[in-house]
Design goal:
heterodimer; A: alpha+beta; Alpha-Beta Plaits; 2 domains; B: alpha+beta; Multidrug efflux transporter AcrB transmembrane fold; Hypothetical Protein, Haloacid Dehalogenase-like Hydrolase, Chain: A, domain 2; Gyrase A, domain 2; 3 domains; five-stranded antiparallel sheet; four-stranded antiparallel sheet; 14 helices; 21% strand; elongated
């Protein structure tokens, strides 16, 4: 049984010829993400800012958003935001955080339930007080920073520090632009989005590590090859793997995006973007950066003997 | 490399079989499983509240408030101690987490220190040379008290929730002063929230009839008295808005052994019974105060203030107020369960109705299955027979993941399902790395066997490195994330680990077996 699709030979793409363009595009993307984050800001879900979220389903045909809005506005509990959520019967209601600490949030749900009355079914209610929200933001920022540091530290430990720098910059790029995407389209940024971003960081490094591994191997094998050609060779040799893996992960993410339901939508969008940008950054940022920070070839060549001895010990 | 020791083959097969066996129960309904014999594994993956429907509440025990209350109850002792020792003072009050005061006679500071130290060994007494003093609980005492308050609260919350008839509630401590309550199947937790939101501290205190409410409010409040407002009833309550009540407690609610809702003159009331000590104290107090009113106080609000017509010696009584049937039965429940040692605030509530839960399971399952099928087809398209090997490994990976989740008693959430789907896409990465390497080695002119050998050997380091970075992200999410994120982190991390096993060992075993049995001349990739 032979494969139907076969990639016969190693491609000979001159990635390094494009790397300056790649840097420019990435710089633009990163800067605009930061600007968007600072000016427009993120559309934080109630996980982070506190507030109330109620998902209701009308039991009598399509939901009447205008009527619901009227009923909620009469309560004077701040700006209620209503939006359709999946089928026309479903509505997602967001109520802003109430003044007066954690205890005052709870009363809103009762008021809203009374106002909406019969004719709706409550599918989901989430109330997050302000203190939990700020803790979750802190924990999220902490987790992201620690993940970046741990990843850079591991690459440093397994390779040379130059690789660690490259891996960190490209991962940071992926994380920042994913955040930028959420700011640009004002997609809700909540706890699952944060999980997606951390996974993106993990995936992006995964991709980078595979390429770095090959760069290191080639540095040992071709000690006199110009470094620019060597990076190109490593990228081309791993290109089929890069493309196949991004495809399988993207297939899984796409099925989540289209079939996984509304609750997972934000997560899937972040993952999809992250997988694409993570692959791009491995090729056009992580690898070319090595050209500028130039790992010590002599040291890597010297470690080749040790690596060989180590490799024979592995199963 | 291409040789497997017998025991290794046996071990790999055993692990795969175990994975299948442990994951199998998840395919059947619980009632079906119950009919199977005992030696078959029964454990299913526990579903999170977002999938099975239910209510998640994060509560904060307000230990500081309990401590403030305790300090204000000690203020009388401070006053008495200083008075007994004839030491003049000013400005005695509770300020933040301390009792503060100023000693007037600076030469008597040492005496004051001595007198005050006797009040409570947990209190530290500090008086500076200019006479200003503070008394507060030491760090050790505060910590012990916090722990005790949280533990007691958990116990009482459990009793209250059990009384409502909620099945399988989970009540556990979270951090230093928080309690996590999970109520499967509860889709409107308003009633539970109302029950948890009340401290339910019941006391019986005498009403001071020597002063009118107006006078007391104008500042002529006799020492040892306090003004307590009346509980707002269902409307027809025709009592005064507040009462002047003795601070001294006749009997406390902690001496109650039972409370039940019942009816008196067609009005809902709560009947209660004291333990023997409480009965004696209540009997004595009522005997001494016949003809005077006493207040039944719940959480610093007067429910009612009946006049004592005769000594109540039987150790039981009735609380009447303006109850509805529901509020009478709630009060009885709260009294049976006991008072919370500290007030509780609800920090976070997440409730998912059963329909949304079922929809989420359905959507998650469909997305996962479609994702897996796409990946499986993709692998066969690109790798042919070796793709089939990778797909078989993927199947065992899925079984091992589900089996580990069942065995560990991990909770599967909707993000967790996303984690499974995602891992399926990522797991074949190890196969892709190996196969691409083999292709390269073949192109490089190696023979079939040495290409296979080199492919597995050389790809291993890369696979390990790339998987470990994903594990970093997973571990951090687990440590710092909450609820849904944790569920995702667990499935992602387990998936990465099981895929190491299945993609490397299972695939290799399949290829080695294929080599031995079919004796092929070339690699079909």
């Amino acid at each position: 049984m032979r494969p139907l699709i076969v990639i016969r030979s190693t491609p000979k793409i001159d990635f390094m010829a494009w790397h300056k363009g790649g840097f420019a595009v990435s710089l633009l993307l990163t800067l605009s993400s930061i600007v968007l984050f600072l000016t427009v800001g993120l559309n934080y879900g109630i996980d982070f800012v506190g507030g109330t979220l109620i998902e209701v389903r009308s039991t009598s045909g399509p939901a009447d958003l205008a009527a619901m809005r009227q009923k909620l506005d009469a309560l004077h509990i701040g700006d209620a935001s209503l939006q359709g959520f999946g089928p026309p019967t479903d509505v997602l209601i967001r109520l802003p955080r109430q003044p007066g600490g954690d205890a005052s949030q709870e009363k809103v749900v009762q008021l809203a339930r009374q106002a909406l009355g019969q004719g709706v079914e409550y599918r989901r209610t989430e109330v997050v007080g302000p203190s939990v929200g700020s803790e979750l933001i802190q924990a999220g920022v902490k987790a992201t920073i620690l993940a970046l540091l741990a990843i850079a530290g591991y690459i440093w430990f397994r390779f040379e520090w130059q690789f660690g720098v490259g891996g960190m910059i490209s991962t940071l790029h992926d994380v920042v632009t994913t955040v930028g995407l959420f700011a640009l389209f004002q997609l809700e940024f909540n706890l699952t989005t944060l999980a997606a971003i951390l996974t993106v960081a993990g995936y992006s490094v995964n991709d980078t590590v595979v390429i770095y591994d090959r760069v290191r191997e080639s540095m040992r094998k071709y000690r006199t090859m110009p470094f620019r050609d060597l990076i190109n060779l490593a990228l081309n040799e791993t290109l089929s793997r890069t493309m196949l893996t991004v495809s399988t992960v993207a297939l899984a993410v796409l099925s989540l995006l289209f079939l996984g339901g509304e609750v997972l939508r934000g997560f899937s969008i972040a993952m999809l973007w992250g997988v694409v940008i993570g692959t791009y950054s491995s090729l056009f940022i992580a690898a070319p950066i090595l050209y500028y920070v130039q790992p010590n070839r002599a040291a890597i060549a010297r470690s080749a003997e040790g690596a060989k001895a180590g490799a024979s010990g592995t199963p | 490399m291409l040789y497997f020791a017998r025991w290794k083959i046996a071990l790999i097969c055993a692990v795969c079989a175990l994975g299948v066996l442990l994951s199998l129960p998840n395919l059947f309904s619980p009632s079906w499983l119950a009919r199977l014999p005992n030696f078959v594994p029964h454990k299913q993956v526990a579903l999170g509240l977002d999938l099975r429907g239910g209510s998640y509440l994060l509560l904060q025990v307000d230990v500081a408030a309990a401590q403030r209350e305790r300090l204000s109850s000690l203020i009388d002792n401070v006053r008495n101690a200083l008075r007994d020792a004839n030491i003049g003072y000013t400005g005695l009050e509770v300020e933040g987490d301390a009792i503060t005061f100023t000693i007037r006679e600076l030469d008597r500071i040492d005496d004051a220190r001595q007198a005050l130290r006797k009040i409570d060994p947990d209190l530290t007494v500090e008086i500076t040379n200019d006479g200003s003093g503070t008394m507060r609980f030491g760090a050790v005492a505060t910590d012990a008290r916090r722990r005790q308050a949280v533990e007691q609260s958990i116990e009482i919350i459990r009793r209250r929730i059990d009384e409502t008839g909620t099945k399988e509630p989970t009540i556990q401590r979270e951090g230093s002063d928080r309690i996590l309550v999970q109520l499967p199947g509860v889709d409107n937790p308003e009633h539970v929230k109302a029950l948890l939101g009340r401290t339910a501290k019941l006391t019986f205190q005498l009403v001071d009839t020597s002063v009118s409410l107006e006078d007391a409010r104008r500042g002529r409040l006799p020492p040892g008295d306090v003004i307590l407002s009346a509980e707002e009833g269902k409307g027809g309550h025709a009592g005064p808005p507040a009462y002047v009540v003795r601070k001294r407690v006749m009997v406390g609610g902690d001496t109650l052994v039972d409370a039940q809702p019942t009816f008196q003159n067609n009005e809902p009331v709560v009947s209660f019974r004291f333990d023997s000590a409480g009965a004696k104290r209540f009997g004595d107090a009522t005997r001494e105060n016949v003809g005077r009113p006493f207040a039944i106080v719940l959480d610093n609000k007067v429910i009612s203030a009946p006049v004592i017509r005769e000594p109540i010696l039987g150790g039981s009584g009735i609380i009447s107020g303006s109850f509805t049937v529901q509020s009478a039965s709630d009060l009885a429940l709260l009294l049976r369960a006991g008072a919370l040692p500290a007030p509780i605030t609800i920090l976070e509530e997440r409730t998912v109705g059963p329909d949304l839960g079922a929809d989420s399971i359905h959507a998650g399952a469909v997305a996962s299955i479609v994702g897996v099928v796409l990946v499986v087809v993709f692998m066969v398209l690109f790798y042919g027979l070796f793709g089939v090997f990778a797909d078989i490994a993927l199947f065992f990976n899925l079984c091992l993941m589900l089996g580990s989740l069942s065995l560990l008693g991990a909770t599967l959430t909707l993000p967790g399902i996303a984690g499974i789907a995602l891992t399926m896409g990522m797991a074949v990465d190890a196969n892709v790395l190996i196969y691409e390497r083999i292709r390269e080695e073949v192109r490089g002119g190696r023979t079939m066997l040495s290409a296979l050998d080199a492919g597995f050997k050389r790809a291993f380091g890369t696979i390990l490195d790339s998987h470990i970075t994903t594990l970093f992200a997973g571990a951090l999410m687990f440590l710092l994330g909450s609820g849904p994120v944790k569920g995702f982190a667990v499935t992602l991390s387990i998936g990465v680990l099981t895929s190491l096993f299945s993609a490397i060992l299972v695939t290799r075993l399949l290829i080695v077996t294929w080599l031995r049995e079919w004796k092929p001349k070339a690699i079909p990739i």
